[in-house]
Amino acid sequence: xxxxxxxxxxxxxxASSLFLPVLLILSCLFVWMLxxxxxxxxxxxxxxxxxxxxxxxxEKIISGSYRNHLPLCVVRVVxxxxxxxxxxxxxxxxxxLRDTEHRMWKSLDMLKMMIRIGPGLGLIGTLIPMGTxxxxxxxxxxSRLSQDLVVAFTTTVVGMALGLLAYFYxxxxxxxxxxxxxxxxxxxxxxxxxDQP
Length: 197
Prior knowledge:
There is one protein chain. By secondary structure, the protein is mostly helical. It has one domain. The protein is 85% helix and 0% strand.
């Protein structure tokens, strides 16, 4: 019986020691999400200014007047593609496209993690004070129970809000990345075809 009591105490100490780091990490992630929201809306405004002409985009790329019709990240790649000419540069073109595509997808990794981490931390931050709150209920301390319940439910709200925002931003940006990759591949094919006799 002493071993079971020792294990219970050990697990309780582990759970209690996790509570402060969970609150700290949730607070830091919330601040990060606020900063990221500003970055997201800046990118959204930049993309709103782009004049979309999907049917005339190949002509714009070939003529070199694509700057107002493509996002800045794609414009940079197209400028590099314009400097690479001939069949000797095919490997360089493919490598440039793959590296850029990899960087674009990698930029979404933090959002993908936040979709899972936010709600997970919120759940951990809920269950730890619920345990101490229920213990205080058994002792008749209702004020301690109410304090623990407030902390428990607010961590749930913060964790779920982080997950929902991250999912929204990830979904929108995934569509942007797919569109940008398509436009870069189109530019590479058009510019490579233009240089061949």
